[in-house]
Amino acid sequence: MVKNGDRKNHEHESFDIPMDVFPPQDNNDLDDDGRPKRTGTFWTASSHIITAVIGSGVLSLAWAIAQLGWIAGPVVMILFSVVTYYTSTLLAYCYRTGDPLSGKRNYTYMDAVESNLGGFKVKVCGVVQYVNLFGVGIGYTVAAAISAMAIKRSNCFHSSHGKDPCHMNSNIYMISFGAAEIILSQIPDFHELWWLSILAAVMSFTYSLIGLGLGIGKVVGNKKIKGSITGVTVGTITQTQKIWKTFQALGNIAFAYSYSMILIEIQDTVKCGPPSEAKTMQKATLISVLVTTFFYMLCGCFGYASFGDSSPGNLLTGFGFYNPYWLIDIANVAIIVHLVGAYQVYCQPLFSFIEINTAKIFPNSDFINKEFEVPIPGCNAFKFNLFRLIWRTIFVVITTVIAMLLPFFNDIVGLIGAIGFWPLTVYFPVEMYIAQKKIPKLSLRWICLELLSFACLMVSLSAAAGSIAGIIDDVKAYKPFQTSY
Fold first, then answer.
1. Which of the residue ranges 120-124, 242-246, 319-323, 453-457 would you say has the lowest mean pLDDT?
2. In 3-state terms, what secondary structure has residue 373?
């Protein structure tokens, strides 16, 4: 599993699936909706969330804390964890419409929005979700290229003993990553990606633990804790830059905590109660957020303690660490493998959404609907579709070209976090909970929930503004397709 990556049955998102797609089974093997019994528990749900949340966002946390300082940095991280936990508990109640034990199940985030809010808000939710997934595709292309360059640069530094600046261009690495994704994107659906998802999960923990270990080792080697109470000081950067970078740091932290849009789908794996799935998910969310926050605190704080105000934007590619170079290489290979899988796990829902809707509009088109089987010796025949080949290839090419135009890891991560945090983590869960529980308008609880939503909207807008300002600032010194690092 990967950052925001544990997805289940996306191809039926917001659509009903006929029961004949499931093999005949005894009634004792079926749940109340006629589908095979869910077997998930508190422990499996917790592990899904933890492995989904801990991803590439962890690499920017040291930089984020450096912008905020030793007091505000950890405090903001804790606040994000508290808000994420609270809104996730609200969202858990929206898995079923009506009775928490026997009400109609909502299989996806959009299903929950449609059941509880309906109308125009469903379309808004879809746009936000899929724009966010599109942005993740761009961000992962940038991150993979940066890691590939870091491998080559670390070996270059090692062989030249630091005398060669080792400048290189990122374009070839982005193109290579895009070519790999074009091939992998032809895998028809999410269910056939299970092996890639598991591999990505292992890689995610590998590079995160390496980053943490290197941070601890550097603090011990320095024999002191670097950093300051207020973070990067004005003078080193301008006051305006300080404000924008502080806002951008909020987006980076938000990105690290974003998993709400997969919570409903994780909940759909939990076995029927009592206790209700909502109660099980609340407990799973609590332990998951505690574990994740503890891990993030270690990575972010040890990273900042190692490098102080000069903490790199990406802990493993910013070259705060040079040795052991082979361990840096292993970590960056793990990042690349993780991102190869993460790109597919994130984009498959978008692929499926477009293909399902296109098929509904043109049900008689062979170009869109006809499947060809390509025999593969020793394996099952590969299903080939012309529309899938062309549209998914175009999608990957677009994300690759945009990544080549805007190869700025921190800015892109901050913007993605800002775009997704308020609507998906706060607004929709709050509004669905209000509708589900029929909370009276202008009651004390209604006012408190709306104030929370408004405060988080301001945070998202600030983070988006800071990230956009960072992109504009970086673009001034960047020549597309030419600049070397």
1. 319-323
2. strand
Question: d(Cα 178, Cα 174) in Å, to the nearest integer?
Answer: 6
Please say whether the dihedral angle defined by the alpha carbons of residues 122, 342, 356 and 88, taken in this order, is positive or negative: negative
Nearest by Cα to 313 from 403, 187, 413: 413
DSSP assigned state of 385: -
Give the single-character DSSP code of 234: B
pLDDT 10s digits, 278-337: 888 888 889 888 888 888 888 888 888 888 888 877 776 654 555 677 888 888 888 888
Q: How far apart are CA 178 and CA 183, in angstroms?
A: 9
Cβ count within 10 A of residue 282? 18
Tokens of residue 38, six digits = 């869910």
The C-alpha atoms of residue 373 and residue 351 are separated, in whole angstroms, by 20
Q: Is the bond into 324 cis (omega within 30 degrees of 0)? A: yes
> What are the residues whose beta carbons fall under 8 Å from the beta carbon of 49, sequence distance 6 or more?
6, 259, 263, 266, 284, 285, 288, 292
Other C-beta atoms lying within 10 Å of the C-beta of residue 111: 24
Structure tokens, 220: 């011990």
Nearest to 47 by CA among 106, 89, 6, 108: 6
323-377 per-position pLDDT tens digit: 677 888 888 888 888 888 778 877 877 887 888 888 888 888 888 888 777 777 7
**Pair 104, 96: CB distance under 8 Å:** yes
Tell me the chain's radius of gyration from C-alpha atoms.
23
Asked whether 395 and 351 are in contact (CB, 8 A), the reply is yes
H-helix or E-strand spanning residue 145: helix 120-160
Structural contact between residues 443 and 104, judged by C-beta atoms closer than 8 angstroms: no
> Locate tokens 């998802």: which residue?
197
Handedness of CA 307, 310, 314, 317 (dihedral sign): negative
Query: Which domains are seen in the chain, by residue range?
Result: 10-476 (1.20.1740)
Report field, pTM of the whole predicted structure over 0.85: no
CB 318 within 8 A of CB 64: no
Angle among Cα 394, 396, 397 to the nearest 5 degrees reads 65
Structure tokens at 462: 């600030």
CA atoms within 13 A on the CB side of 16: 6
